[in-house]
Amino acid sequence: MYKLFIVDDEQLVVETLSTMIDWNASGVRIAGTANNGKQALERILESDPDVILTDIRMPGMSGLELIRALKEKGCQAECIIVSGYSEFEYAKEAIELEAVDYLIKPAELEEVSRTVLRAIERLERKRDPAGNRPELRIAKALDRAVFTDLIVHAKRPSFDRVPYERYGQFAAIVIGSPAALWLERMKSSGVTDALLGFLANQGIEVELLYEQQKIILLCMAAMEESESLSEILMAAAAAFSDDGSPASDNLALSFGIGPVVSGIMDAHRSFLAADQACQMGLFFGVPVTDGNAWPEIARASERWLSEWSERIESFTRYEQKPFEELLECWTEWGRRRWMAPVFLKKTGIQWVNRLLDLVERDYGIKIGSVIEDRSLLIEGLLEAPDWASLQKQCHDCAQGVQFFLNVTKTSLKEKVVQEIKTYLESHYHENIQLDQLAERFDLNASYVSHLYSKSTGQTILEYVTLLRIQQAKRMLRESSFKISKISQNVGYDNQRYFCQVFKKHVGVSPGQYREDHMIKIEESCSS
Description:
Distance between the termini: 126 Å
Domain Response regulatory: 3-120
Number of helices: 21
Subcellular location: Cytoplasm
Keywords: Cytoplasm, DNA-binding, Phosphoprotein, Transcription, Transcription regulation, Two-component regulatory system
CATH superfamily of the largest domain: Response regulator
Largest sheet: 5 strands, parallel
GO molecular function: DNA-binding transcription factor activity; sequence-specific DNA binding
Domain HTH araC/xylS-type: 418-516
């Protein structure tokens, strides 16, 4: 039996590769596993496996560094790389290290099994120089990396284009799903194979890629009719996206179909439209979305965003009805499914921010009194996975604002006014600044002044002055403090100004008030 060693920093991957493939049927047994490069180096040298299956990016030592270190120590094992990264440079280095293949995660289990068997065949051909031709080394893996760079990343790598010149039509399909573990379920249920078989029966060649939890199909056909490929792809998507069909394994799949292009070097344009279409499908819950409509959707979204921004800025005060009408208008655009999700989120965020800004200003409150954290709310809108979630968050915000204003604002005002009065009664002798008072009660200064005067019929300054005069009168009656001392005690550093204010409110000077009051006390005592 041949010995296989598996290295990956994700234990779930190690367990899946170890247990989900019938290695015994292929004459292979697991010689060991490891979760990092350094650990693997030691164990591989001890177990001496025939084939090594390793990830690239791992803590301590990468998979490529592991292979290089093993070769330096004389290890003759055939190496296979399984990585979540499809960069061309990785594949190129893998070739230099004579790796058997370079598989992109999530790799089909059957593909992993076939690659291990191919590594074993290579071992058996070691004695035959003809069996070790450099041009056979991971040619398919290099193609996969090239395709990823070309289609997904819009790079222009060098590769042999001759095999693709016989195809006159190229189009991309991007498949996604909100379901948990949907890629694994598609693989295990055979949906992917069934889809590829359907396309093959129509004379369509397919390159299959996995990227960012999506399936990417580059479909190539040599057909005379320009619309033939699009029609076939739309039919395939409709058949395999149906939730109720046995083939779909009850998965909610979203297919984005890209426009047909005439050359392999233009395939990225088809992928980009297909990817955007798939994102729209996932966001709105649509099984099949035609990427040919994407340019117009993008233009319409830009126009709507511009018009929306102008309407939002036109509001200068908060009034419930206009904001409710605006929210309904926004909701209607979402129902029509004719706006790119990113633009719909931007307009929703603009609505929320304008609403909260005006409520905060018009009612003189810190918005934290209405919602817990504005930044978390905005983050939630940005990360909304679908239209229903985005819509609910905006409506919840509107309802929260209305509840606060309609149910609590009256009692809140009464409470705030009473708290201000209590504070002033204890601090009237201090130099009270309106902005500091507002900050203390988490309100803005203009609102504090307006609220207090409207609720009590007097300004804050008038009430502070009243408190000071009352306390000065008491001290003039009940103490022998000099007037200068009394002036300082009640909050006036300038005695002359204190005397002016006192006379204005009492009608006599502080000295006269004390003299008159002392006479009255003496008269009362003598009688």
